[in-house]
Amino acid sequence: MSSRQGFYRCIPFMALLLAASVAWAVPSGSAAPNAGTPVFVTTAGQSADAHAVKLLLDRSKIASGYDAVAEADKISGSKTLFLVMGGSSKGLGAAGMNENDEIVRVTRVLEKAKKENIYIVGIHIGGESRRGALSAKFIDLVAPQCSYIIVKQDGNKDGYFTKLGAKIKIPVTVIDETLDLVSIFKTMFAVK
Fold first, then answer.
1. Counting CB atoms within 10 angstroms of each CB, which of 10, 78, 145, 189 has the fewest?
2. Residue 153 sits in a domain of what CATH number?
């Protein structure tokens, strides 16, 4: 058999591998729902992940407000609130807060969002390292109050977010990479 024949015999296998790798990169779970603008981003736990979400919204050409220590009044007028879950003792210290201060702040933000009928999206992109005891306090506070959750696969190894979504009947999208947020945001906000 010539090398050319061998190459052509490998094409179906290579096509299968390519298709599998593309399918693997597509977020799994529920399809992203439509959401309205303006968007506001804040953190629940003071991890830097909320800033990463803000940068990806900018990259997606979706205007959004951002404040890591936003109080409830700051989200007024928003249609969608992104609460990025993940506790960071370093972030709390830099913000001049302790975990109880942050729990009170996030609770007020959630109450205001519910009162003003703002669509709440919980995002967890910190992976397994943001699933410790400190993060759990913020995840347990925020996730059950969301209308939609986006979680990075390595932060959902125990199925916490997907089980919660099924229990409270909300869509959950599992992503492999943080950059997968760009396509989700573009779908949510109908950006081409």
1. 10
2. 3.40.50
Task: Please check whether residue 154 is in contact with residue 125, taking contact to mean a CB–CB distance below 8 angstroms.
Answer: no
Tokens of 9: 């015999």
The pTM of the whole model exceeds 0.85? no
Helix axes 181-188, 49-59, angle to 10 degrees: 60
95 token code pair: 């913000």
Partners of 174 in the β-ladder: 28, 151
By DSSP bridging, strand 28-29 and strand 172-175 are: antiparallel
Q: How many domains does the chain divide into?
A: 1
Q: Does the structure show a pLDDT above 60 at 1?
A: no
User: Cα separation of 1 and 90, whole Å?
Assistant: 63
Q: Closest Cα partner for 85 from 33, 36, 141, 38?
A: 141
Helix (H, G, I), strand (E, B) or coil at 145: helix
Full domain range(s) for residue 146: 3-188
